[in-house]
Design a protein that fits this description.
An eleven-stranded mixed sheet has the order 2-1-10-11-9-3-8-4-5-6-7. It is globular, with a radius of gyration of 17 Å. The chain starts with 6 loop residues before the first strand and ends with a strand. The chain contains six helices and eleven strands. By secondary structure, the protein is an alpha/beta fold. A hairpin with a 3-residue loop joins β1 and β2. The chain has a single domain, classed as Dihydrofolate Reductase, subunit A.
Length: 254
């Protein structure tokens, strides 16, 4: 692992700490409801609200952001992501660092989190790094009947029993019951977030704000105009800073 960045804690009290220290003992799975996993979003945006610049998040990420990103992956049973994000960001093995995999094992987790890919159309190439990785376990949440051929990864499917379309609430319930998943880190994209939030399936938001204005180079917001009947309130848990980048952790209150 690279040298840890020290972040400045602004709230709840002043101090400095690393990404590992910020997330030490977070135990997200301990907060899981009885019927589904505890789900947190992790998103980055520019100051003016763009979720990507040039269709990628990389221009808004710095070393501190990447260390928090990977440290969050080390805390959860599963990482959920939309198919479009898998394609755009070229997802590969979720925990590449052997030291972080050992951290997961020491916490009683599998060395690699389960990858949960949400895909309405199954437009996924087996050559995508995640699907070409023999160490990866992937569950595809889909309403389609087809299957992906030629994947080196261990791929299984969650399909709605009635065949009527994607059912994220039902998929999360089955992840808990059939796969033992108690905590899920959702990394978007915005359209997936916009489906989870109105269904009341998001428990926390980790939000990184890059010190950039995207302007016309930007795209969707992190929630893609989610059809919410009312604004969702957020309770600030902590706020960190590094080189002008802000890192907020919020509890979601419906």
């Amino acid at each position: 692992m690279t040298e840890p960045v020290r972040l400045r804690r602004l709230l709840p009290g002043p101090g400095t700490l690393t990404a590992a220290e910020a997330l030490e003992g977070i135990a997200l799975g301990d907060h899981a409801p009885a019927d589904r996993p505890y789900l947190v979003l992790n998103m980055v945006s520019s100051v003016d609200g763009a979720a990507t610049i040039g269709e990628r998040t990389e221009p808004m990420s710095d070393r501190a952001d990447r260390q928090l990103f990977h440290q969050l992956r080390a805390q959860v049973d599963a990482v959920m992501v939309g198919a479009g994000t898998v394609r755009a960001e070229r997802y590969g093995r979720l925990v590449r660092d052997a030291g972080r995999r050992q951290q997961r094992v020491d916490r009683g987790l599998a060395a690699d989190p389960l990858a949960v890919v949400v895909s309405a159309s199954l437009d996924l190439s087996p050559e995508l790094p995640l699907l070409a990785d023999p160490h990866s376990r992937v569950v595809v949440v889909t309403a389609g009947d087809a299957e992906l051929d030629g994947c080196a990864a261990d791929v299984s499917y969650l399909r709605p029993p009635d065949g009527r379309g994607l059912d994220l609430a039902g998929a999360l319930q089955r992840l808990r019951a059939e796969y033992g998943v108690r905590s899920v880190l959702c990394e978007g994209g915005p359209r997936l977030n916009a489906s989870l939030l109105p269904a009341g399936l998001v428990d926390e938001l980790f939000w990184s704000v890059a010190p950039k204005l995207a302007g016309s180079a930007g795209s969707l917001t992190i929630v893609d105009r989610a059809p919410l009947p009312a604004a969702v309130d957020l309770d600030l848990i902590w706020l960190l800073e590094s080189d002008g980048q802000l890192f907020a952790r919020y509890a979601v209150r419906y």
